[in-house]
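BACKBONE GEOMETRY TOKENS:
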Amino acid sequence: MWKQLGEFFKHVLFLTQEVQKNQDDIRRHEQEMREVKDALKLLAFEVSKLRDNEQHEREKMALRFEIELLRAGRQLPTGKPDEQKEA
């Protein structure tokens, strides 16, 4: 009987240690998840910023193309404004 009681307390001590280890693991995983979440938010912000920058670049390119088409059709003077004043 004393042997069974000793084994029982040994088993309870082992389970207590396992529970503590599991709680520590959960805390560590929660911290890692917070870090991943923060990194993901930063990545999403950067992607959004890149998307906006690319949209602006496409708009500028379209305007440059339109200017070149107008110049080719001689609807706009060629060259820069400073060059026209000197000529």
User: Anything to note?
Assistant: The two ends are 113 Å apart (CA to CA).
